[in-house]
Amino acid sequence: MSATITRSVCPYDCPDTCGLLVEVENGRAVRVTGDPEHPFTRGTLCPKMLHYERTVHSPERLTTPLIRTGAKGAGEFRRASWEEAIATIAARWQEIIAAHGAEAILPYSYAGTMGLVQRNSGHPFFHRLGASRLERTICSPAKEAGWQAVMGETPAPHPDEVAESDLVILWGINAAATNIHFLHGVREAKRRGAAVWLIDTYETPTAKTADRVILPRPGSDGALALGLMHVISREGLVDRAFVAERVQGFAELAETILPDYPPERVEALTGIPAATVEELARLYAKARAPFIRLGSGLSRYGNGAMTIRTICALPALVGAYGKRGGGLFASTSTGPAFALKEVTREDFQARPTRLVNMNRLGHALTELADPPVMALYVYHSNPAAVTPDQNAILRGLGRDDLFTVVHERFMTDTARWADVVLPATSSLETSDLYRAYGTYCIQRCRPAVPPVGESRSNWDTFALLAEAMGFDEPFFRQSADELIDRLLAIPTSMREGIDLARFNEGKGVELPLPADAPRTFRTPSGKVEILNPREPEPLPRFLPAHEEGGTLPLMLMTAPTPYALNASFYEQEELREKQGGMCLMVNPAEAAARGLADGQRVVAFNVRGEVAFILRVTGGVPAGVAVAEGVWWSAHAPGDRTVNALTSQRLTDRGNGSTFYDTRIDIRATA
Ligand SMILES: Nc1nc2c(c(=O)[nH]1)N[C@H]1C(S)=C(S)[C@@H](COP(=O)(O)OP(=O)(O)OC[C@H]3O[C@@H](n4cnc5c(=O)[nH]c(N)nc54)[C@H](O)[C@@H]3O)O[C@H]1N2
Ligand SMILES: Nc1nc2c(c(=O)[nH]1)N[C@H]1C(S)=C(S)[C@@H](COP(=O)(O)OP(=O)(O)OC[C@H]3O[C@@H](n4cnc5c(=O)[nH]c(N)nc54)[C@H](O)[C@@H]3O)O[C@H]1N2
Ligand code: SF4
Ligand SMILES: [Mo]
After folding, report:
1. Domain 4Fe-4S Mo/W bis-MGD-type: where (predicted)?
2. Does residue 526 come out as left (phi exceeding 0), alpha (psi in the -120 to 50 range) or beta?
């Protein structure tokens, strides 16, 4: 039988949101390639998605519901029908609601799929149920808070504008792993003569794209930005006209804050030589249109929001925010393209219920009272792997009186602890609507292949649960496609003027951003707000990070790998092999000081836990830093714990975000 080709969208939590071409034979995806007609994908995929068919048709896919037969966490289950599984869940929930109230039920989800309908399909159900609400702040709310403090609702420039820049700074972003299609524009800028600087904590794979790499001490970038502004101000390199007309609070910053950050002090705080601070400051100020692509890593610290805010002030001094090809790209805000409230249905709540921070799941499961969490429903997330303080979470999941349901594609670290496991479809088996956070593209997709085994989508599963719980709203009886049609029938100003014909063919299309939009500042004052009177601290300044772990000698970078996405893709053996196992990278001096050698098994430890790694000794990581790329499944780890057994539940300064990178550890040889 000949193959047919269906368009689809990469569902993962990646800024690129690629368009896919899926070749299907006999109901199976046999090949997945990048859509050459997609404006950002341009026909190429990242290494993770080159063989998406191996994920979709993996022999490890869950194909039926499962009910626990062994001890909690033992991974012993029997097969069950959907009828039995749903009836079991509904009966246990009714008991729990009668005894403790519906707030004793906690949903837990994040970004296994980014499709608007499948991702959010639990919201109406749990709102109607009156369950506790989850504060979904694991990723980068501090980054948003920092950007908003300075730039308000100003949209990001089109990512391809970077090609028109003459100085590109990749700041805290490992774009070669996490945003590869953005590098297309960076390479184009380079071809036209631009210089590219990378500011990270170790030499990531992105270092190859950069002309210069500088590695500040983790958590110290705020001081670096203040040092750059000090030099620009001191040397009279400020764009006076731009600042006078379009910036609020530069004079206050220059008078009260900048004098404290001469390059010598910045060197002491960041480890970056004073001469390099001066060199970059001059280069930045003299560039025609300097462009900063800001990652999220540096926001996952106790001082994360303030760090981002400080960096966001920098382009204002030289007028870069007013120039095409210049400014700062943090992420695109494409949310208003669709009436998302028609999916999330906050109006189904009788009253706003308690909010539980997802980063503090360990605390929620082990310490929360009034009512305690008695039931956990996990869907498209893997908290036993991705959420900080793994040991606290595992203690919680091990509670005999906790009823845990996990809706998953694979037997993940979390699913292993479930009482009931429900098999989930992959994105190729469902309909959805996508928007991006690294581009202005939107796209609709329909199933390319039938559901694998008895797997069901998030949307269809909540429909079953709604029926079992006796919810009679017609909302729960519509199909995902009906809901998508409804969303598309509601016009929004952001979608005005899209190429509807292409969109209706299932192709990725761009929201038409007015060319001057990023240069019209949507803040209360209409200016770039270096001084923001609505913030507890009206001016940016340097705040120290938490550095959880006290005096331990190494800052732990919980960084992304090019061969996985958070804890996704570990079902593909070839991708695990490309990572070379679950490694911890350190500088030769750190290894030598401890008598450790490359390739050896070591234990990383702090007050929260101990994790076995394979040691990689490399000059690409500076002294004082250790790097653990990837969020491994314990099944493929050297020991029984993975990286987040070392990270902390403490939150960021603003936005209640995670502080993954803000942890100290030490390492020793395994006994
Ligand atoms: N291949 C791959 N792609 C991914 C992901 C993945 O895991 N793998 N994850 C996806 C998700 S959910 C997200 S949110 C994005 C994240 O995409 P990125 O923003 O690129 O990734 P982050 O983990 O946020 O961190 C980026 C870089 O910040 C660096 N960093 C950490 N602390 C500091 C610091 O104090 N200063 C500086 N200058 N740099 C610092 C880290 O070393 C890392 O290289 O990527 C998405 N895409
Ligand atoms: N150490 C460390 N920890 C991290 C990070 C890090 O860089 N380092 N990154 C952090 C960040 S930025 C984020 S955003 C979080 C991400 O946290 P998560 O969103 O939990 O990330 P994933 O590992 O992608 O897990 C998603 C799960 O969803 C499942 N899934 C996929 N599609 C579907 C579906 O349609 N339905 C259902 N029911 N399941 C589905 C997948 O099989 C997968 O196991 O992790 C955070 N944790
Ligand atoms: S993970 Fe990112 S780069 Fe890779 S295919 Fe998906 S959207 Fe594109
Ligand atoms: Mo994320």
Report:
1. 3-60
2. left
